[in-house]
Amino acid sequence: MKMCNLTRLPEFILLGLSSRPEDQKPLFALFFIMYLVTLVGNLLIIVTIRSDPQLQNPMYFFLSVLSFADICYTTVIVPKMLVNFLSDTKTISYADCLAQMYFFLVFGNVDSYLLAAMAIDHYVAICNAFHYVTIMNHRCCMLLLVFSIAFSCLHSLLHVLLVNRLTFCASNIIHHFFCDVNPVLKLASSSTSVNEVVAMTEGLASVMAPFACIIISYLRILIAILNIPSAAGKRKASSTCSSHLTVVTLFYGSISYVYFQPLSSYTVKDRIATIIYTVLTSMLNPFIYSLRNKDMKRGLGKLISRIKSEMDRLSTATTNKINGP
Question: Looking at the DSSP assignment, which residues form a beta bridge with residue 13?
Fold first, then answer.
């Protein structure tokens, strides 16, 4: 044990989703396509919002930041996973593992707090519509964003520092496709009691605080919708929130399944559930928010038309240049 305290494993082996060789190429193709769809879809959301003057309001500001966070979130995990699908070694250095864990926690928490900020925005828009512009001003939006990022960075740093104090001198095989906290803790040779206590107190509070904010906001929204006299008004208010509620359900449902259980019960099913909130939700967000939102569909249509007209203009200019005067 004395030698164990003085040594540290130089690297870990990421077992991935499957250890069967015949599964690696199909899994690579699947996640490569999902990653491309995530990048293209979220970039389209960002460009559409930034280029359309009619989408310059708090709801779409938070949506554009959420899309950027989703790109970063999946980029922390998926590229390394794709490399491991085609590699025989599937290793990750100790430092890279901690770095991946840190940024995974940062962008995961940013996502969580942005969903809460969007819920607050929906609440103000529906329940306090006359004062919406005053309350959800630029300063308020920036404060919510800065808090989300700052708290997420501090929260993630705490958990990574607690992992770094542990010793690993037995198995170095992580039964996961990335360096998540729980699978890494299971490999520790030293006691993880402090990590588990912090995870079930500070960690639980950091997840439940934005979730509680979302629940309270939507309870108030539900009461406000029930008091709307016209059916058309109720439908309009409900449609404003439906996309956001879908994303919240996917995100928090899968996170609750994975993390709100004892460390010893962490199994292969949790790896599958992790895909939902790390990869699937980020990929589906652009579809959920654009296909069920008239303003986003109109903005996307304008962007596509602008791109097509620009391509036609360039094509015509190229043809004229080739044909000469």
Answer: 91, 173
